[in-house]
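Entry type: protein chain
Record version: 2
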Amino acid sequence: MGALQRMVFLEKNINLDISTRLRDFLEQKGYKVILTRDMDKSLDSLSNDGGSRHLRDLKARVNIINNSNAELFLSIHENCHIKNLNADGSIVLYNERFTQNKMLAYCVQRALNSIMIDGKKRTVHDPQNSPGFYLLNYSKIPGVIIETVFIYNQKERELLGQDSFKDELAKAIANGIEKYFNETNNVSGGTNRSHSFHPKWRYFPPYNSNALKPFP
């Protein structure tokens, strides 16, 4: 079951939609982008390491990241807060395994915080240091997880039905990536930058916000 189990559309489809838009915006800027998937499919069959289907899927994604020769990765999600249905905004998750992760998280977070809806900003968040996520723990390159919206918030859920809003999310993330490379003096025309993006379906329930942790 996904976070949208009672909804008409599924979180995994939204993640893929936003990710492909993000790919297009970054490619327009001259960046090379690698998607872990460009259609609705699980990657568990690509891993022979055993474990649950969910864990095999995560391991396959990590393998793609670590063999991509990319300079960073992003994992695209939607957030949920069942105790506060009015929670809104985007939150970027990172850990401190790489010194670049925090700067990357802040650059993307600030760009997402700048999105205006009907002339007003959504809730402004700081990025969160989140050491428990599988992708962040086992990737060999810097990266962040991006919770683009709170899916149980009716207004944000309705916004996801608008192409213009999904474009705003993707453009903001792309701008944050460009800001990150500018801040770290890594941009030299931008044409050789490579990034790996993960349109991932986070399971809920029974899994919570730590759903990407390795299972025993």
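Comment: The chain has one domain: 11-199.
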